[in-house]
Design goal:
Elements (H helix, E strand, L loop, with lengths): L8 E3 L3 E3 L8 H5 L1 E4 L2 H17 L6 E4 L9 H12 L11 E5 L3 H9 L5 E5 L5 H7 L8 H15 L3 E7 L7 H10 L5 E7 L13 H13 L4 E3 L16 H6 L5 E2 L1
Parallel strand pairs: 1-4, 4-5, 5-6, 6-7, 7-8, 8-9
Antiparallel strand pairs: 1-10, 2-3
Helix pairs in contact: 2-3, 4-6, 7-8
Length: about 260
């Protein structure tokens, strides 16, 4: 009988706070404090790896989706991954890492040129510039035309599938029409869309989509040939859900990771 590995994924941070200012993200709402060093990034993994070891388990995957924009702290982020990937480090395979970015185009192109086997995820959340700029200020500097060109070049260079992250916000970006627009934007691109109903934050009035609207959004994407997964919301009760890292937690322990 085949033995299946028990998945244990760490969601770790690369910065204290974040300078990107995404309106629905608690970390973006708190502003930028400082970059973490490569050692501080690695330390998060070691801390939880030791806890898991006591339970007879081990870290299987790492997502750099905690506080901060990893590509805004590119050198330290890559140095940390290299140390964790090294045989004398934690010997975690490169494909067990996923980096999430809001779309810093020059860094996406640099990352592509380095031909790394690390997975790349893009926080998209909107399929037109007007809506995306209202949600993610970075879109003013790197509009969708530039971002999607970089994404298509990334896939052409690396032959690796991209993941697009989409926080479903009730009556904002969760309609069937929006899904149709997204499908047109992603047409022909090797990619996968992860959708998750928005987690609430104190300074943003939007609410997460209902299950019914999420299913309709997913169905429309798949009807147009775009693979889609609805992610489960976790950690909301302790302000640890996606985009929900609490300011109080950040002040107490800016490099505290979340295990999912």
């Amino acid at each position: 009988m085949m033995k299946y590995e028990k998945r244990r994924t760490l969601c770790i941070s690369t910065q204290s706070g974040c300078a990107m200012g995404c309106v629905f993200c608690a970390t973006g709402q708190m502003g930028f404090k400082r970059n973490l060093t490569s050692g501080e990034i690695v330390e998060q993994v070691i801390y939880y790896a030791n806890l898991l070891r006591r339970e007879g388990e081990s870290v299987t995957n790492i997502v750099l989706m905690g506080m901060g924009e990893p590509f805004h702290n590119y050198d330290a982020t890559m140095a940390a991954i290299d140390r964790l990937n090294h045989p004398l480090g934690m010997n975690l395979g490169a494909r067990r890492f996923t980096i999430s970015t809001v779309g810093l185009v020059p860094m996406i192109r640099r990352f592509a040129a380095e031909q790394r086997q690390i997975n790349l995820a893009i926080s998209l959340h909107a399929a037109d510039d007007e809506l995306r700029t209202s949600m993610l200020p970075v879109n003013k500097k790197y509009p969708l035309s530039e971002l999607m060109a970089a994404c298509r070049d990334y896939v052409a260079q690396t032959h690796r599938r991209l993941t697009f992250e989409w926080a479903l916000i009730q009556n904002v970006n969760d309609s069937v029409e929006t899904a149709r627009k997204l499908a047109r934007l992603l047409e022909g691109l090797l990619c996968h869309v992860n959708v998750i109903p928005l987690n609430p934050t104190q300074k943003y009035a939007g609410k997460g989509s209902t299950r019914e609207r999420a299913l309709a959004f997913k169905a429309e994407l798949e009807r147009h040939g775009v693979p889609c997964t609805i992610r489960i919301r976790r950690g909301i009760d302790i302000q640890a859900g996606c985009g929900q890292l609490a300011i109080q937690q950040a002040q107490n322990s800016p490099s505290n990771p979340l295990m999912i």
